[in-house]
Amino acid sequence: MHICDIFRQQRTTFSFEFFPPKSAEAAESLFHAIAELESLHPSFVSVTYGAGGSTRELTHELVTRIKRETKLDAVPHLTCVGHSREEIDGILRRYAEAGIGNVLALGGDVPKALAAAGYDRSRDAFRYGSELVAHIRKSGMQPAGELRGFGLAVAGYPEGHPGTPNRVHEMDYLKAKVDAGADCIVTQLFFDNRDYYDFRDRCRIAGIHVPIIAGLMPVTSAKGLVGMADMALGCRFPAPLLRMVNRAGDNPEAVKRVGVHWASQQCADLLEHAVDGIHFYTLNRSTATREVFANLGVSDSDGLRR
Fold first, then answer.
1. By three-state DSSP, how is residue 88 classified?
2. Shortest CA distance to 163 belongs to which of 207, 200, 117, 128?
3. What are the boundaries of each domain within the chain?
4. How far apart are CA 144 and CA 92, in angstroms?
5. Where are the alpha helices (DSSP H) in the chain?
6. Which of 28, 128, 219, 298 is buried most deeply by CB count within 10 Å?
7. Cα R_g (the chain), whole angstroms
8. Residue 151 — φ and ψ, nearest 5°?
9. Active-site positions?
10. How many CA atoms lie within 13 A of 267 on its CB side?
């Protein structure tokens, strides 16, 4: 289903993100997690894409398998890094032929290995997400069974894009992506809802009026918290959350309960403040996300959309 139709039908969207597995065993484990989350009837699921196309085929295989073996709408990530115009068009054509109707268009980061080798981004057909969005719109490609072009999502950064310290220019760049044809924004993860509300207000002031989906990731371990900081550069961990994690000490189950509690409180508050959607970064696991839904008092996300 086109992302615009999803928003027209649902007051609040609920979605999950996965990354492509690198082995047959990991693939089966992931599909078990997807099956568990499918019972929550998510609005869509997204699949990440390795910078420079390092997981291009794995992403395509996972997305098409989700399309083939589940009732879920899959939204593949697509990045500019390491791609010619012809390669981008080839990827889009394959998705269109498979009936994949939506894409999350990203500028992408240069992988560490390529950066160390002095990779020159001038070789890329596109450098910025706005350029990729504009190209997809101009391509005129229509996914099988869809009378319009691709539904397009782009990324937003409530706490600021790590590569754009000027917050005024940051909003200009985000508006450029929307003006180029983006249908919605999915935010980077955050742990303080005030950052999301401020970001949403600044978007409206800048003339950005597409839906803004809030990205959340429940803390599941003390080690994982450090990993989140590496994954989402600039991500701020509120002092109350850190104190709760510290009180849990070396008890993994206690840390997980803290993470689920915090994410549940975030979700409840976001719903009270009319959030357009909530996107869970699952790390290919279903348990924490399902527990958050249970804490919201519903058996599946259909109960939160009406």
1. helix
2. 128
3. 3-304
4. 12
5. 3-9, 24-38, 56-69, 85-98, 112-116, 129-139, 167-179, 193-205, 222-231, 239-248, 252-272, 287-295
6. 219
7. 19
8. -80, 135
9. 17
10. 28
Q: Among 132, 53, 147, 55, which residue's Cα sits nearest to residue 99? A: 147
Q: Please say whether the dihedral angle defined by the alpha carbons of residues 185, 188, 189 and 193, taken in this order, is positive or negative.
A: negative
Helix 239-248 × helix 252-272 angle, to 10°: 150
What does the CA dihedral 257, 259, 260, 266 come to, rounded to 10 degrees?
Answer: 140
Residue % of the chain over a pLDDT of 70: 92
Question: Domain 3-304 belongs to what topology?
Answer: TIM Barrel (3.20.20)
Task: Establish how many alpha carbons lie within 13 A of residue 135's alpha carbon, considering only the half-sphere containing its beta carbon.
Answer: 23
Whole-model pTM? Answer: 0.93
The whole-angstrom separation of Cα 297 and Cα 288 is: 15
175-221: per-residue pLDDT in tens?
999 999 999 999 999 999 999 999 999 999 999 999 999 999 999 98
In terms of residues, how long is the chain? 306
Residue pair 126/79 in contact (Cβ under 8 Å)? The answer is no
